[in-house]
Design goal:
This protein has 7 helices and 11 strands. By secondary structure, the chain is of the alpha/beta class. The protein has a single domain, classed as Bira Bifunctional Protein, Domain 2 (BirA Bifunctional Protein, domain 2, 2-Layer Sandwich), CATH 3.30.930.10. The C terminus is likely disordered.
Length: about 240
């Protein structure tokens, strides 16, 4: 039988709210209260620093960011500094790796494959870089990966640049790397893109790459759990 994941295709969600939701779902998944879950969101502008992140990779002052209303947040995902904003599709799988029969390296590789296949639908040939996970078009990053695992349950995930503003990436050394560029699917395909279409294609590729079926859940029902504590249980 094909495994199923619950899929919440959410609208614009604040980073803290989505982070809180993930933590609640991680605890609930470990307790067996929910199945594997896939969250698909966009965020208002925010910079996040992962476990390898450091302020040395921020090329502007924090006061500069405050004046523009852009927060800077430290999170427990892997990787360095990155930017999230409207027009970037962010995927957060909250899944039990052992139950899924996946090791960490294979899991990350499959997330990359999802983005690579999605990009190819618009004629964009993206590839991998063994020194920095994510997907690339030449020397420019098209999609980033930064995951966390707690008691065998994954959270955080990938960020895929669809038609996001690229200007804020110029305020950092993306992923802590110097001399690289950042690009978007819209720029590489040289056509106007509609996020709704990219969302549907990416969900299709998630199903194909992970060999699962996504079961949609009403956004309002899932978002209502965002205020639960990390140790609470929940039902979908």
């Amino acid at each position: 039988m094909v495994k199923t994941w619950v899929c919440a295709d959410l609208p614009m969600v604040g980073y803290q709210e989505a982070w809180d939701l993930q933590l609640g779902l991680v605890s609930a998944r470990k307790a067996g209260s929910v199945p594997d879950v896939f969250l698909l969101v966009e965020h208002p502008p925010v910079f996040t620093l992962g476990r390898r992140g450091g302020h040395e990779n921020l090329a502007v002052s924090e006061d500069f960011l405050r004046k523009r209303g852009i927060p800077l947040m430290h999170v427990e995902r892997g990787g360095n500094i990155t930017f999230h904003g409207p027009g970037q599709l962010v995927g957060y799988p909250i899944i039990d790796l052992h139950a899924a029969g996946l090791g960490v390296t294979e899991y990350v590789g499959r997330l990359e494959e999802v983005m690579i296949r999605t990009a190819s639908h618009w004629g964009v040939c993206a590839g991998r870089n063994s020194l920095n996970r994510g997907i690339w078009v030449g020397n420019s990053k098209l999609g980033s990966i930064g995951i966390a695992i707690r008691r065998g349950i994954t959270f955080h995930g990938f960020a895929f640049n669809v038609n996001v503003s690229l200007e804020p990436f110029g305020w950092i050394n993306p992923c802590g790397l110097q001399g690289i560029g950042v690009t978007s699917l819209e720029r590489e395909s040289s056509r106007e893109l509609f996020m709704s279409e990219v969302r549907e294609k990416l969900k299709h590729e998630m199903e194909a790459v992970f060999g699962i079926r996504l079961i949609p859940v009403v956004s309002a029902d899932l978002m209502g759990t965002a205020r639960i504590t990390p140790d609470a249980e929940m039902k979908i």
